[in-house]
Design brief:
The structure is a homodimer. Chain A has about 400 residues and is an alpha/beta fold. Chain A folds into three domains: about 170 residues, Carbamate kinase (3-Layer(aba) Sandwich), CATH 3.40.1160; about 70 residues, Alpha-Beta Plaits (2-Layer Sandwich); about 60 residues, 2-Layer Sandwich (VC0802-like). Chain A has 13 helices and 20 strands. Chain A has an eight-stranded mixed sheet, with helices on both faces. The longest helix of chain A is centred in the first third of the chain and has 16 residues. The interface between A and B is large, with 39 and 39 residues.
Chain lengths: ~400, ~400
């Protein structure tokens, strides 16, 4: 007998028909003799509708009231799935954040889970009852409903699995696993049987939208085995596990890309101490995150060019902040460029293999793709390229690292 | 300074635009220097959608899960109205049933309110904060969400008003008050400035759908002044008050009708002791309420005919129950008739005026309308007539009792 947490996202519970399908999935897990807790998202579209209503109602944002409205979506799904399970003869009950309780801090709209009291749920799991838990929500220090921010149901699921000391946390979604690359672009992409937490974390933060970064980090901290699998296809997915559970390590496990980047080049900045602080300080003050940075000497020898990336959604704000500080920074020209994409090759095998970066640069150069910025970590190499080369770059690298599916 | 509870029904909060209008209404009450608590229903249509989902999900009914799903509707409105009020510069916060808490018994789907802890709300009202309370819901003895049944938001409002010792409970709805008769049928109907609790109770239970019977009974018990008024027109409505607050009493205050009735005649029942029990016992066992009853001797002198009414929705079930018990009861023919309507004249003045019933029977006879069954109470006379005479009967009685608007 195992204890399993299952999480079903919005598309998996989009309507009553799909909720009934989910109930069958849960039933078959119960049928294996396992204890099952289920975490559910809101029905697809419901959260957007609720968010739209709050925006249409008020220009101001009282995040506490926003949370009251938005958390209702998961409440509905939790009740409906409990009914669907009961209809199949499975003992089940719904749990809202405040009922368990899932205690969070008081940062409404993006709260962090502090504790989950699983005493009563454990007792009922042992009696064979399925716990259906509303994802994405908790209760704050002052007894008000909090939400964990977008994608928070993944985090709810992993946190609950950790608190329950579950054997596995299954994340059911609309893809059937983690691929070596986005299969919509790279036709020869393969589904990975296993991937390490570190790789998954890089994949998620480098643009692969299968799992929320936060939930992966939490799984890694608790060494919770997470499986990503499809709620529509009955097949094993990708298991996210500790590195020592993977026998045969690939040098490169996957290739990710992100279109959410934009590049800013600040030309002819005085090449003096403190100039980087003059640029990045004001951006940080405006909560604009800077990702890749490269500094190069200008042709004149007395100044430098600084190139860096920000989220595309922040580009206009970033430019305005820098133009405001033009005098203090002392630059001549500011060049924003939203037409860039970040491509990353990821693999824990890099730790013990040299030459991964070189191979990447060579493969791209062979296709005439210019690299604008480079950044690396222990298990990742990322490059910024013109967005028109996205597909070519991904397919080229996929082949270059021997990731293509046979046939 | 007064303390006012305002309640807004589903059509008053049907969309974001209307919720903003409600916020303006609340603001003007606050502007008068009053303390204001607001009770809201779900947005029109929301509850039906939620109920449909529960029905589509499960043939079984776990009322606890039904309550989890359905209570989310009022949660959304409470959050949105709080945001709309804040947008107008009014300090406001939402309260869900479990947060106050509004404690109920454990009868899910039609729970009864037991206690409301208003300590914290009172403190905040005194500080000028508006309390926006989700209607229709509470929390049961085991910490689960309960709902009060259809129309329960009226009950929430009156119960909250009583607990807060409010000066008045304003029920905003899509009609602008209580009329002497349904103005859609009786063009000369007049809006009543005041009506007694007893009359309102009879009006509600005799078919006038302005207020829920339960909320009127609760208002009467607590002597809470209730005003029924329109959320769309800025005009005083009808005040439901104690009898001694009405100086000039009408003999008849209003005429109500109900199409939700059906008649059953059981012919040639053996005229012996215990036969009524043989008929009405099985109906009660099947939770079928019987309203009006008349027994008359048959032509042969040895048997009796029994005629009574049940809710139209129960007619088929009632007939089946009686046919099953045909042998035990011993009747010859069972005649069901759904084409009937119950018309009632209501007024506390009847207590001191004789002849009200006689006037009714005469007026109907003058128009050739046959009375099938009669029932009376201290302040009401009801008759059952063929439904095709509904309009004629209502207009005739309205004129006969001098209720017609001048002009």
């Amino acid at each position: 007998m195992a204890r399993i947490v299952q999480k079903f996202g919005g598309t998996s519970v989009a309507d009553v028909g799909r909720i009934k399908s989910v109930a069958l999935r849960v039933k078959s897990e119960v049928g294996l003799g396992n204890q099952v807790a289920v975490v559910v998202s809101a029905m697809a579209g419901a959260t957007n509708q609720l968010v739209d209503w709050t925006r249409d109602t008020s220009r101001l944002h009282d995040a506490r009231e926003y949370d009251v409205v938005v958390a209702s979506g998961e409440q509905v799904t939790a009740g409906l799935l409990s009914l669907a399970l009961q209809d199949l003869g499975i003992d089940a009950r719904s749990w809202l954040g405040w009922q368990i309780p899932i205690r969070t801090d008081g940062v409404h709209g993006k709260a962090r889970i502090e504790t989950i009291d699983v005493t009563e749920i454990c007792r009922r799991l042992a009696e064979g009852q399925v716990a259906v838990v509303a994802g994405f929500q908790g209760v704050g220090p002052r007894g008000r409903i909090t939400t964990l921010g977008r994608g928070g149901s993944d985090t709810s699921a992993v946190a609950l699995a950790a608190a329950l000391e579950a054997d596995r946390c299954d994340i059911f979604t609309d893809v059937d696993g983690v691929y070596t690359a986005d299969p919509r672009i790279v036709a020869k992409a393969r589904k990975l049987g296993r991937i390490t937490y570190e790789e998954m974390l890089e994949m998620a933060s480098q643009g692969a939208k299968v799992l929320q970064t936060r939930s992966v980090a939490m799984a890694m901290n608790h060494r919770m085995r997470v499986q990503v699998l499809s709620s529509f296809i009955d097949a094993p997915g990708t298991l996210v596990v500790d590195e020592d559970e993977i026998v045969e390590k690939q040098v490169v496990s996957g290739i990710a890309y992100s279109r959410d980047e934009a590049k800013i080049t600040v030309q002819k900045v005085a090449d003096r101490p403190g100039v980087a602080a003059a640029i990045f300080g004001p951006l940080a003050d405006h909560a604009i995150n800077v990702d890749m940075i490269v500094q190069s000497a200008s042709e004149d020898g007395h100044t430098a060019d600084l190139t860096f990336t920000v989220a595309r959604a922040d580009l206009d704000r970033a430019v305005a902040v820098l133009e405001n500080g033009k005098k203090a920074i002392g630059f001549t020209v500011l060049k924003p460029d939203p037409n860039v994409v970040k491509v990353s090759v990821i693999g824990v095998g890099m730790r013990s293999h040299a030459g991964v970066a070189k191979q990447m640069f060579q493969a791209l150069a062979d296709k005439g793709i210019n690299i604008q910025v480079i950044s690396t970590s222990e298990i990742k190499v990322s490059v910024l390229i013109a967005s028109e080369y996205t597909e070519l770059a991904l397919r080229t690298l996929h082949t270059a690292y021997g990731l293509d599916a046979p046939g």
